[in-house]
Amino acid sequence: MATQLTKIQNFIDAHHVLSLATSNQEELSVCNLFYAYDKENQIFVVASSDETTHIQHILHNAHIAGSIVLETKNIGKIQGLQFRGKFALLEERGLSKIYFKAFPTALAMKPKLWQIQVEYFKMTDNTLGFGKKIIWEL
């Protein structure tokens, strides 16, 4: 299980934008967010303002889904990660350091930081064989 999580975390480290899907009882929304990632706790740290549709959804339904993908036309190199978790205001202020280390110019904007506590990962990695899946759950 640790080897699988390491493979997933290496993929996460190689990227910096995730797609986030949210919903309330009446509508769906998807957005893209820059992220930093805490490997120890499986937490994405993102910045967003209260006025956005996805934050308004999260205030009613904290359960989210998301993805990170490698864009390629080469089938043998396809890699992508799907995840599910809970979205909340950043609890551990120490985690803000990893976000601002990744995006130092964001510090000047004084953004509101949020966390995604990941509960499930599914990675497709064709570099390990066509359609190879790696699953990790909390």
Explain the overall architecture.
By secondary structure, this protein is an alpha+beta fold. It has a single domain (2-137), classed as Electron Transport, Fmn-binding Protein, Chain A (Pnp Oxidase, Chain A, Roll). Helix content is 20%, strand content 43%. It has a 6-stranded antiparallel barrel. The longest helix has 12 residues, at 2-13. The N and C termini lie close together (11 Å).
Low-pLDDT residue spans? none
What structural class do helix, strand and pairing data support?
A: alpha+beta
Total individual domains: 1
The H-and-E topology, N to C, reads as: HEEEHEEHEE
CATH architecture: Roll
State which percent range the strand residues make up: 35-45%
Mean pLDDT across every amino acid position: 93
Shape: globular
CATH class wording:
Mainly Beta
What is the fourth-level CATH superfamily?
A: Electron Transport, Fmn-binding Protein, Chain A
Assign the CATH topology. Pnp Oxidase, Chain A
Number of strands: 7
Give the strand line-up of the largest sheet.
1-2-3-6-5-4
Integer-rounded radius of gyration:
15 Å
- Helix percentage: 10-25%
